[in-house]
Amino acid sequence: MSITLNGIALPDEMIWSDEFEWSPVDITNENTIGGKLILSESSVTGEQGRPITLVGDNAWAQKTNMLLIHALAQALGSTMTLILHDASSRNVKFRHWDKPAFSARKVSESAFSDEFTWYNLQAKLVVV
Fold this sequence. Notes:
Number of strands: 11
Strand content: 35-45%
Order of helices and strands: EEEEEEEHEEEE
Structural class: mainly beta
Radius of gyration: 19 Å
Helix content: under 10%
Shape: elongated
Number of domains: 1
Distance between the termini: 23 Å
């Protein structure tokens, strides 16, 4: 199954690079005056705030698709639906505080580009 973002097909070769780098558990620590360690644990309900970074060395899209995804990244306040390879679905936004939230680089360097030019994509999203 393909990955889609608001119905726009993303390259099949994209992978969720930070899938296992997030935990709903948060812990803080501090020491008392006497040196005793105090730990405070909390947990996030659901996946809200979970980063989803989509990358891939061979995650290529043609310029027409890249422009559609770029337009999504420029839309202020929009929440999008991301469907992953396993058909799981999440509501996401671009992580604009983690620049660049979306990037596209030409696969082959040339001054000329048209709708058939290939780009390598990266998208930084967050579950909302």
